[in-house]
C-alpha cells in the first residue's frame, strides 16, 4: 500500500510551486535581477521535470487500472501544461500575488512615510519602488487623487508636475489592488519603465 504522501506529491507540487513563487516574489529578492533571470527559470525547470515524472507515473498507474492514484499523478502535468499555455499570465499572477503579500507586510512602514510628509493642502502622490532591473522595476503608488490610472488627457497639470518628480515620469503601468478595501484605498501596484 502506497503512503498518501507518495501518492499525492504531484498535487502538492502543482499547488506548491505557484505558492513558492508568490512567497519568493514577496521577499526583497523578488525583483532582483539574478532571481528573475536565473532563479525563476531554474524553479520552473524543476517544476517541468517533476511534471514529466508525474506523467510517467500516471501512465503506469493507468495501465494497472489504478484510477484514483493515476488522476492524482495527472494533476501536476495538467497544471504545468495550463500554466505553460498561459505563461505570461501565470508569471503575472505570481508577481502580482507576491506584490500584494509584500505590500501587506510593509504597509505600516509605508503609512509612516506618508504621515511624515507635512500636509501642504495638495493631494499626496508617493512612489515606493521595490526595485528591479535597470530597464524596469516594480512598486506601489499612493495617489490621493487617484489620477494614476486615468488616461493621460484626464490628469491634472498639478498631478503631472508631482509625477514628474518620481518614477512615474519614465512611463508606467498601474492597477488598483484587488478588492475594494478601505486599507488599500488610493494604493496601486505599478510597474515602472526605469
Provide an overview of this structure.
There is one protein chain. The chain is of the alpha+beta class. The mean pLDDT is 91. It has 5 helices and 4 strands. It has helices spanning 4-25, 33-63, 67-85, 87-115, 157-163; strands at residues 125-132, 137-143, 172-176, 187-192. α1 (4-25) packs parallel to α3 (67-85), α2 (33-63) packs antiparallel against α3 (67-85) and α3 packs across α4. The chain folds into 2 domains: 4-93; 117-192, no CATH class. The longest helix has 31 residues, at 33-63.
Secondary-structure element series: HHHHEEHEE
Global shape: elongated
Alpha carbon gap, first and last residue: 56 Å
Low-pLDDT parts are none
Helix content: 55-70%
Oligomer: single chain
Q: What is the count of structural domains?
A: 2
Question: Strands across the major sheet, in which order?
Answer: 1-2-4-3
Residue-averaged pLDDT: 91
How many H/I helical runs? 5
Strand share of the residues? Answer: 5-15%
The major beta sheet can be summarized as: 4 strands, antiparallel
Radius of gyration: 22 Å
Q: Could you list some keywords that capture this structure?
A:
194 residues; 4-stranded antiparallel beta sheet
In short:
56% of the residues lie in helices and 13% in strands. The protein is of the alpha+beta class and 194 residues long.
Q: What layout of secondary structure does this protein have?
A:
Blueprint: H1 4-25, H2 33-63, H3 67-85, H4 87-115, E1 125-132, E2 137-143, H5 157-163, E3 172-176, E4 187-192
Antiparallel strand pairs: 1-2, 2-4, 3-4
Amino acid at each position: 500500500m502506497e503512503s498518501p504522501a507518495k501518492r499525492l506529491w504531484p498535487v502538492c507540487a502543482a499547488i506548491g510551486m505557484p505558492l513558492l513563487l508568490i512567497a519568493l516574489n514577496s521577499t526583497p529578492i523578488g525583483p532582483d535581477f539574478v532571481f528573475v533571470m536565473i532563479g525563476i527559470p531554474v524553479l520552473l525547470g524543476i517544476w517541468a521535470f517533476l511534471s514529466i515524472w508525474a506523467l510517467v507515473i500516471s501512465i503506469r498507474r493507468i495501465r494497472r487500472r489504478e484510477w484514483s492514484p493515476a488522476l492524482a499523478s495527472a494533476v501536476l502535468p495538467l497544471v504545468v501544461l495550463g500554466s505553460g499555455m498561459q505563461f505570461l499570465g501565470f508569471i503575472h499572477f505570481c508577481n502580482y500575488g507576491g506584490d500584494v503579500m509584500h505590500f501587506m507586510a510593509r504597509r505600516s512602514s509605508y503609512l509612516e512615510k506618508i504621515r511624515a510628509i507635512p500636509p501642504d493642502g495638495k493631494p499626496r502622490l508617493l512612489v515606493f519602488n521595490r526595485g528591479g532591473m535597470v530597464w524596469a522595476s516594480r512598486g506601489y503608488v499612493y495617489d490621493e487623487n487617484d489620477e494614476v490610472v486615468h488616461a493621460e488627457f484626464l490628469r491634472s497639470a498639478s498631478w503631472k508636475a508631482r509625477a514628474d518628480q518620481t518614477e512615474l515620469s519614465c512611463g508606467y503601468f498601474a492597477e488598483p489592488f484587488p478588492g475594494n478595501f478601505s486599507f488599500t484605498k488610493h494604493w496601486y501596484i505599478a510597474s515602472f519603465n526605469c
